[in-house]
Specification:
The structure is a single chain. With 337 residues, this protein is α/β, with parallel strands linked by helices. The chain has two domains: 113 residues, no CATH class; 193 residues, Alpha/Beta hydrolase fold, catalytic domain (Rossmann fold), CATH 3.40.50.1820. Helix content is 43%, strand content 13%. It has 14 helices and eight strands. An eight-stranded mixed β-sheet has the order 1-2-4-3-5-6-7-8, with helices on both faces. Strand 1 and strand 2 form a beta hairpin. Helix 5 packs across helix 10 and helix 7 crosses helix 8.
């Protein structure tokens, strides 16, 4: 009976893969390898697919998890976590912004031999310090093109890498631990790195880096719309996927097995209580992806080394693209004389 049901699920998976071009006729092109987990955002409201074909596939996934959870909850939990960690399929290559043509390409090799690719810019008048930019989930280095020139003008060497499974980098999955290892390898192979800018998942990962970094007082971290609490992110994913309690428990256990930590360990506010260096935390009150509500209590009791820049109406992405915000970030990063 169990074998028969799993066989039917496998056959249905093959049917979906075979009919990819018909199911996704209203979406961006998706590579065959990406069907191990459809790319979904980490917030319920924003994850909800807009097109008819996406809704069909979402319903298929919900049914699949419901069926498997009755037979093998641990497998259902593992599959759900792998789905969660699978970023958007790689779209058609975006034309490189002009400033990226003036960069030196860099490659860093991770422990599992995954290669991540990035860019390096050298200033004409160096201040002997380096800034690393860490983008968010389903993003890539190109989106921070407007940050490069101001940083170079201040004398910084600038590094920007595509995270594992993003942009030009290799890999299939991304989560905080994977991203953290990638940034640590960048620090080892392309460092030293003195200051950091991160958005969303990149900002959460940088908070985990900050927790244990040495010479904290000499460093600066800019955290833009960090995914403050992973528990919130997972709760939204559970809601969207209609996961039952058994699958949720298996999902969370799989996270603990893979990372050696419970989910609440991966929280920016928790990690930063142990960091003593200067931080600029940028967040919008209308952020629907990484809710502002998650930072309210922390903001009221945060240590004095954390400066908050709170906006209203810029949401999750405009907040790092707005000129006025970028100006304040550059002011924060201006080298001391």
């Amino acid at each position: 009976m169990v074998v028969t049901i799993f066989a039917k699920i496998a056959l249905k998976d093959q049917w979906v893969k075979h009919n990819t071009r018909f199911i996704c006729r209203n979406t961006k092109k998706i590579s065959r390898s990406s069907w191990s987990g459809l790319s979904l955002r980490s917030n319920c409201k924003h994850m909800a697919p807009a097109g008819f074909s996406e809704r069909i596939y979402l319903q298929y996934l919900r049914t699949k998890f419901k069926t498997i959870s009755k037979l093998a909850p641990a497998i259902a939990g593992r599959m759900a976590f792998e789905l969660f960690c699978t970023p958007y399929p790689k779209y058609k290559k975006r034309k490189a912004p002009a400033i990226f043509h003036h960069a030196t390409k860099r490659t860093v090799v991770l422990t599992d031999q995954t290669k991540i690719h990035g860019f390096e810019w050298l200033p004409s008048k160096p201040n002997d310090q380096t800034v690393l930019i860490a983008h968010g989930y389903a993003s890539y280095a190109y989106k921070f093109e407007h940050y490069i020139a101001p940083l170079l003008k201040m004398g910084y060497r600038v590094l920007a890498f595509d995270a594992p499974a993003h942009g030009q980098s290799e890999g299939k999955h991304i989560h905080v631990v994977v991203y953290q290892e990638a940034i640590q390898k960048i620090m080892e192979q392309a460092g030293p790195i003195h200051h950091f800018i991160g958005h969303s998942l990149g900002a959460l990962t940088l908070s985990m880096i900050a927790e244990k970094i040495d010479q904290a007082e000499a460093r600066k971290f800019v955290l833009i719309a960090p995914a403050t609490k992973t528990t919130t992110t997972f709760a939204n994913f559970f809601k969207m996927m209609h996961l039952n309690e058994v699958t949720k428990a298996a999902f969370l256990q799989d996270v603990s097995n893979r990372t050696s930590h419970t989910v609440d360990h991966f929280a920016a506010d928790r990690a930063l209580t142990n960091y003593k260096g200067p931080i600029l935390w940028v967040h919008d009150e209308k952020d629907m992806v990484c809710p502002y509500e998650d930072i309210i209590n922390f903001k009221e009791n945060a240590p004095s080394n954390i400066k908050f820049l709170i906006t209203n109406g810029l949401g999750h992405n405009k907040v790092y693209k707005t000129a006025e915000i970028m100006d304040q970030i550059m002011t924060f990063l201006t080298p001391s004389k």
